[in-house]
Amino acid sequence: MLNIALPKGRLGEKVYGLFERAGFDCPAIREENRKLFFENEALGLRYFWVKPSDVAIYVERGAADIGVAGKDILLEYAPEVYELLDLGVGKCRMCVAGPKDFYDDMRRTLRVATKFSHIATEYYASLGRDIDVIPLNGSIELAPILGLSDVIVDIVETGATLRENDLAVLETIVPISARLIANKASYAFQNERIEAVVQGLAQEVQK
To answer: Can you list the residues of the chain whose pLDDT is less than 50?
Structure first.
């Protein structure tokens, strides 16, 4: 069996659609049920749903041979996996956002609220800017509104939440999308099968 970890939710459904159209289908996934893993014995495929932020862990540790993870997760946690293909879905961007009239006073340390501490640290280090990272897990937009931080580093899709809270994108750090990743040992031992998946998905992405 080729074990494939898919992210739960809307993104996972889009991604499975790509696999399905590429000929790597598993009809049981389309049935109404609460199962977490599904097999197509004829094709030798086993799919399972996991939390999006956990896909890379399953792949890195070998519980999954391949999987689909957001580029944000790969940048933040730097898992030991191979990144094989940009699937072109789940597109958004990692941004610095803050009050529309924000002015960065270089004489003081910039306070940055984020759940992407590594990405924020690397980005500002590349600019030579001193920052104080404030780790948060939810409602990041509240931080600059309540004076907890000067700016935030977060994923922006449409920007609607920012606008509704009188915030704006100040800088774009990097574009984000879903990526096909592989366990390094699996890629060596099941190279032919994994490459077949890569080629099939690449053709669908290009359509």
So the answer is: none
Q: Which of 152, 23, 158 is nearest to 95 (CA)?
A: 152
Positive or negative: CA dihedral 188, 191, 194, 197:
positive
The amino acid present at 27, given as its one-letter code, is P
pLDDT of residue 162: 93
Beta-bridge partner residues of 169:
97
The CA-CA-CA angle for residues 83, 84, 85, to 5°, reads: 110
10 Å CB burial of residue 204 (0-12, 13-18, 19+) is middle
What residues form DSSP beta bridges with 112? 133, 151
| pLDDT (0 to 100) of residue 36 | 86
Count CB atoms within 10 A of the CB of residue 94: 24
The 10 Å Cβ neighbour count of residue 146 is: 10
Q: DSSP E strands: which ranges in the chain?
A: 2-7, 37-40, 45-50, 66-70, 81-86, 92-99, 110-114, 131-135, 151-156, 167-176, 178-183
- How much is the pLDDT for 166? 93
Parallel, antiparallel or unpaired: strands 151-156 and 92-99:
antiparallel
